[in-house]
Structures
1.
Amino acid sequence: MQDQPNPFGTPGENPSTPSYGPPIPAPTGDAYFNNGVNDSGTGATAVLPDELKGFNWGACLMSWIWSIAHNTWIGLLTFVFGIIMMVVLGFKGNEWAWQNRKWDSVEQFRETQRVWTKWGIGLTIVGIVFYGLFFSMIMAMVRNSPRTTTTTTTTFQPAPAAPQ
């Protein structure tokens, strides 16, 4: 029987290459990103995966509510800067959400943002319809209000003469 080499090396030996074979590759799949590590929720150091880059309609349309849910407190500036901050949230929303909240997978992130987008679009449509109906009711009330015109005639009368 021929001696088999010890796969772990001999005691005290420091081989330049491991004797146990090539390193095991990092797991692949949806749960691993950025060099095999899901770094979501780690703050500004987290790197947004390329497939998640793009405009976030949920962040834009749901602004401050979306910001609270995603721990993106800068989104509360919507109360100060309005539509400008909403657009900023749209462009930076995916990145900030990835940095500020832990996600299990890219697919979970996508699905969550999809739900925010659907709610944002739905509530925007409801808001437009509501304000349209409100405006129509106000216009109908103005149109149907009685038109009373009062004419005021003033005649000039000289002031009484001062007693002498």
2.
Amino acid sequence: MTISWPNKSPEPTADGAVSSAIAVHATSRRWLSVFVRPLDYAMKYQLVLQFRGDTLADYYTMVALEDRLIEDLGHSAKVDGHDCGSGETNIFIHTSDPAATFWIVRHTLQREGRLDAVRAAYRDIAGESYTAIWPEGSQKDFVIT
């Protein structure tokens, strides 16, 4: 009499179609997650888009814009949230390259008719001070209230 032990290998085998299919699925998901997931550890900067206004209408406009940015940026950057209050609305984006990310964001803002209404700056995620990148040549301090 031969005892057949269940396949405990994470690799697919010809022994048992269901367990092989599960093993293939699990292995594929592990490998796929390495390539599809944004590389959060490489995103060393926070890019902030700042608009004037903190009304409910401003909030809904900002949320709609945030959704479009998520689509347009894809996996190149991560829209990390927002805040609204003290007369301003901010969208926070984690990125490994603030200039390249803002280039994409700029096109989205232009398409939405919001480019003239935004101020943008970035900082090292662990840093305190921001470097303004929009409007071009801005010397005004960038502060989040």
3.
Amino acid sequence: MPTQNKLRAKFAAGRKCLGVWSSVLHTVVTETVAAAGYDFVILDNEHGPSMPGDTLPHLQILARMDTATIVRVPWNDPVYLKRILDAGAESVMVPMVETAEQARAVVNACRYPPQGQRSFGPWPTVFTAPSILRMAASAAWARTVASPAPGVRKARSNT
């Protein structure tokens, strides 16, 4: 689990960020992209063959570098979100969010109580931070993708 969200910190510092979208399973590609100086990599678990177990080695590589991670998950599933965050994702991108209620469910699944309902379990990455619950409240960053167009209209009407 990351101790801070690298992308959020870069934005807070006023930096413009450049990233890469990847659905490649081979970790050499991820390491090369990070070494090239990109600010973030989106690891696509929605389209293509990647699952949390496939994504873990990419997250481990990126954790050692200055490149932030965003994992696009297949759907708004609290179990999938928990597993990918436990594996070390700094940020998640959730597709097909069409209502404010669905967006709140995403945030709820990404946060520990009392701010959310994400459960806590012994996973090696969680022991790298001195206070996992305090850090997790500020580090995990959930982003939603409103699609298709009716979802955008619904989201606007619910804000």
4.
Amino acid sequence: MICGSRPLPLVPPRVLPKLPQPQNEVFQVAVRPKAMTPLMISRYKPGKQYGTHVDDALMRGLRTDVSFTLFLAEPETYEGGALVVESAAGEQEFKLAAGAMIVYPSTALHRVESVQKGERLAAVGWTRSFIRSSEQREILFDLDNVRRDIFDMHGKTPAFDQLSKCSANLLRMWADD
């Protein structure tokens, strides 16, 4: 698979369809990507960790709004190595199945805990969003989910049309093109 002009090494074939791409609908709605950095494959062996940090505001000349980690190794194949993301609600720990991805604001403090045994393998990347504010992205994501639920339950109704109008107009107001 090619991301930009670089092949993605070490990515198991079963994971390739999960990589963030323009056609991944959930990624599109949650992130509203305008541009993406090339993916970076990170490998942690026993004793390796990445201390608490916030991602760089600019990477390769691109403002970073959203960070993501795509887990490439099954969690039972290594001990430790959890991704810990800090938020107002406290610390959240993530150690997901191969092919699962966590997306979080690039402004969040986070770290990778020390790997005790085995090997942690992940693809990481950063996205510039059309919507700079994580709060605004969350509102648009929630609105889109409710709008889809209404359509799935009742079809195209005046309520669906009104929510669609609100969502489109908020996107128009907040988009940074």
